[in-house]
Write a structure and sequence with these properties.
Blueprint lengths: L15 H28 L4 H9 L18 H14 L1 H13 L1 H6 L2 H14 L4 E4 L15 E5 L2 E12 L6 E7 L9 E7 L5 E3 L13 E12 L3 E2 L5 H37 L1 E2 L2 E2 L4 H29 L5 H26 L9 H9 L9 H12 L2
Parallel strand pairs: 1-4
Antiparallel strand pairs: 2-3, 3-7, 4-5, 5-8, 6-7, 9-10
Length: 388
Amino acid sequence: MVDVMNAAGMSFELTDEQLMLQKMAREFTQNEIIPKAAEYDEHATFPQDIFDKAREIGLVNSNIPEEYGGLGASMIEDVIIGEELAYGCTGISTSITTNGLGNLPIIIGGTEAQKKYWLGERLVDNGEFVSYCMTEPAAGSNVAGIQSRAEKKGAKYILNGSKTFITNASYAHFYTVFAKTDPSAGHRGMSCFIVDRDSPGLSISKKFDKMGQRASDTAQITFENVEIPEENLLGEEGKGFLIGMKVFDFSRPAVGSGAVGLLRRAMEESIKYAKERETFGQPIYNWQAVSHKIANMSMDYEAARLLVWQSAWMVEHGMSNPRLSATAKTFAADAAMRAAVDAVQIFGGYGYMREYPVEKLMRDCKVFQIYEGTSEILRNVVVRELFR
């Protein structure tokens, strides 16, 4: 098992606590996620029972600091958990880990009172869901182009607009929402708010029927004159863009870890099948056309995981590096997609059938190249940083 650098120098050894956490997440995946993954995928069912079990053992809200009742997991520990859960089903793992995305603006920009209430009381004590609301129907990769508007009126803000492709939207009890408070100021006019689900004027669409990650709920939210108390503003007015960019520092390694987990599953399923399947009197792994595909999966897996863990380590130690986090997420997503496609090819006709797991891996994997920054946009980030 490989690790990344630690603060004392170079190390490739997990601590005893990290090994225990990895073992716990791996056993949970084997016992709770894998046996139910196909059924949840087929019916696009939200995995409430699995979420509740994950919460009981600390796999939900793991990034919430201990003083607010969370596990206080480091970024390295979060990506360890992310890989293990995604190995079982990335739709279910996304449902479990989305609280860790939705709560980041509060962790980053919240006051002590906001953290105690929303992180401690609402998420940890009450077991609630939170969703992260940035993407809009006309503003995906162009974060600065969001059109939602929050206008200050007395002690309240009036929010109008819509957000789309929001994970866990139908089940969330509150949302961290980005909106323009000063549209004339461009990205400097963006602010971030906590919006309660029960707010009048807030409505949620029917969930989207997706190609993959079907166990994850995804829907659109509309805000029509929604009143937000001024105490629900995170940070200062105009600081929303900075909060959003800091969220990406944390979220991209986490998303990359999910792709790494799927990649490992594709590789291991391919190895198992290539040992059992015979053609012309011998196992198919003896054929170079098959074995080289699996060798490429192995090399991609090791490289992707190291990139993800290095970027997580840097965030954990206060060394924000947008180029590295973009590199890690993009490389892991693209490598996972290659592995999923090659796994289907190795399985041949059986790989195209839902009876076998690699068909689902291929459907689930595609979105890793799209959300949290498309692979194309993140390559632009890499170039921007190289030429800065």
